[in-house]
Amino acid sequence: MDNFMAARSQMALSLGFHIIFSCIGMVMPFFMAVSHFLWLRTGNPVYQNITKAWSKGVAIFFATGAVSGTVLSFELGLLWPTFMKHAGPIFGMPFSLEGTAFFIEAIALGFFLYGWNRFNRWFHWFTGVVVGISGLLSGILVVAANAWMNSPSGFDLVDGKYTNIDPIKAMFNPAWFSQALHMSIAAFAATGFAVAGVHALMVMRKQNANFHLRAFKIAAIFGVIAAILQPLSGDISAKMVAKRQPAKLAAMEAHFETKPYSPLIIGGIPDVKNKKVDYAIELPGMLSFMVYDDFKTPVKGLDQIPEKDQPPIAVTHYAFQLMVALGMLMMGLGILYLIAIWKKKSWFDKRWFLKLFVWATPIGFIAVEAGWTVTEVGRQPWIIQGVMRTADAVTPMPGIGYSFYLFTAVYFTLSIAVIFLLYRQIKMVPEIYDNPNPVSK
Predict the structure, then answer these.
(1) CA–CA separation, 63 and 60 (whole Å)
(2) For 321-336, what is each residue's pLDDT tens digit?
(3) What is the pTM (predicted TM-score) of this model?
(4) Scanning 61, 275, 356, 369, which has the fewest C-beta atoms within 10 Å of its C-beta?
């Protein structure tokens, strides 16, 4: 494995693991805060114990997210030194602010975990809210840095030198809002469905059913609302990609030919050699409408982009189609959940309904991984869109291939440890909360 592929593979592996830990770390504190609020308002001890159980999960993912995030920081300098040399002074501000948010999150989490019966009840609840807000801000700031790579701004490039650097403009680049919105909603959807699925499984097994049913409802409503809102943020993101990264959009849609009434492609197998898509469903004019709000305006296709500047078409297209398909699946399940709340409360006692959420446990995170594949692979061959190629930024240091295998083993071990700890936490739910007749209120 040469340096270029080894560095890209190691970065992809690290990001693939870290994104799961960070999504859960960003979102679960809000679940925890809601259950804590319900306990303070109702006095129901089940909500208190849901809060305590979830707080242990938050602590686990905070620790693993901190470790994997620190590794990523070192990898940026180790694997991409040319990139960091030029880009660091420009987009370093969101990383430094993310560090501040991380420290606030760590302090607030310490207060929350050890503050039971020591602080004012509402101040204690507030520290949990701070954990969620600071975690969410951390994620937004990191995404702002990634958005700068997709939509570089805040500098002038003159004779190969970066001048007139404006870190504020770089941080609030044209793509930061759309990416941060899309990623934040995706994190809520993925974590909501994953947590709801675990609790739905325990309800089906009639283990501490009252505890798990109440936890299921809190997590599910977050996931459902996020899944229903996600297509709106996706539309905003797609319009930004069309404007700033037309090659990425063309690869996402396997859009080979620039023409009026550009079709929206659903599914299909891209035939790059013959510049066509086999077995696809085409909706004439829909891509034009989604990008430009009219059916006739041509969307720039791959035929207007030099081959050396085109991303891997098949990978980008398949990842995009997978992300959209899973997003629509979650939205459909979310609509079913809302029907259950308003019209069919008896569904909460039905195995088929709970089983749908059990099956949906991993799909949000699969969609997140697919989305980041689109973001990163779709930007290739650029590490900074239109400014620096990925091949020009990689380290010349030999032996990177060995570190890839080492980090694969480390992340695999870390994942096994997290699964074990979470399984242990679920099994430790006190049997005093077991109730053979769970309430559906």
Answers:
(1) 5
(2) 999 999 999 999 999 9
(3) 0.88
(4) 275
Nearest by Cα to 58 from 70, 46, 50: 50
Q: Is the pLDDT of residue 434 over 50?
A: no
Say if residues 21 and 28 touch (Cβ distance below 8 Å).
Answer: no
Tokens of 185: 């909603």
Q: Based on the number of CB atoms within 10 Å of its own CB, is 295 exposed (0-12), middle (13-18) or buried (19 or more)?
A: middle
Give the separation between CA 61 and CA 19, rounded to whole angstroms. 11
Token pair of 403 as six digits: 């570190």
Nearest to 68 by CA among 412, 426, 433, 342: 412
Rounded average pLDDT over 117-136: 90
Using the Cα atoms of residue 162, residue 164, residue 170 and residue 174 in order, give the sign of their dihedral.
negative
pLDDT by residue (tens digit) across 324-373? 999 999 999 999 999 988 888 888 888 898 999 999 999 999 999 999 89
d(CA 36, CA 42) in angstroms, rounded, equals 10
* Per-residue pLDDT tens over the stretch 66-113: 777 777 777 777 788 888 888 888 887 888 888 888 889 889 988 998
Cα-to-chain-centroid distance, residue 425: 24
